[in-house]
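Priority: medium. Attachment 1 of 2:
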């Protein structure tokens, strides 16, 4: 009986030793960094979704003021529809075409939203609307969080992509983790690392909102 227990324990001991050995040589590094990058992407998506959720209320407030420039409102509505229809899942973060489509749609929404906010400066009655003031504050905070989340995502992806190419993890990337592929990065326009500044003050000291760069 003791001999049986000895033989039964042997495979378990080998499995434990193998697991420790794989862990020590970096076998788990690739999936760990991949999950970190995917988590950063989820955080970024949630901020983009928060912005999309705020826009209908913004449009409603501006519509209620019956501004003359209806084109800017239409552009925001259409850009939001495009941005929310283009999705990138963790599985397609390695797809350049899907990622570029997502980035382009979000960039178009940023541009349309900035044009609308610039147009609103000509309407003091909108800027004095408390709902608009609250939305302005929320949008500004969301833009800041998008900038931070985008930066964090890029940093996590660069770390993950580098791991796939460097020794000793490149060995695992070409063998047991051969399904792991480099993820796409946000390629921002100059100045995109800075969150847009929006100023809704009226009077001679008022400044024009800085257009949000393509994301």
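Attachment 2 of 2:
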């Amino acid at each position: 009986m003791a001999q049986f227990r000895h033989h039964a324990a042997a495979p378990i001991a080998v499995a434990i030793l193998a697991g420790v050995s794989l862990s020590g040589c970096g076998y788990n590094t690739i999936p760990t960094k991949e999950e970190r990058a995917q988590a950063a992407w989820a955080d970024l998506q949630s901020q983009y979704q928060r912005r999309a959720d705020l826009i209908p209320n913004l449009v409603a407030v501006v519509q209620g003021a019956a501004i003359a420039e209806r084109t800017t409102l239409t552009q925001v509505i259409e850009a939001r529809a495009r941005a929310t229809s283009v999705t990138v899942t963790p599985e397609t973060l390695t797809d350049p075409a899907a990622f570029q489509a997502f980035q382009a749609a979000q960039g178009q929404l940023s541009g349309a939203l900035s044009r609308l906010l610039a147009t609103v400066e000509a309407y003091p009655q909108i800027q004095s609307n408390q709902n608009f003031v609250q939305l302005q504050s929320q949008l500004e905070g969301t833009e800041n969080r998008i900038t931070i989340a985008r930066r964090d995502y890029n940093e996590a992806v660069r770390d993950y992509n580098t791991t796939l190419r460097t020794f000793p993890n490149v060995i695992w990337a070409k063998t047991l983790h051969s399904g792991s592929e480099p993820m796409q990065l946000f390629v921002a326009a100059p100045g995109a690392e800075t969150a847009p500044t929006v100023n809704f003050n009226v009077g001679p000291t008022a400044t024009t909102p800085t257009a949000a760069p393509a994301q």
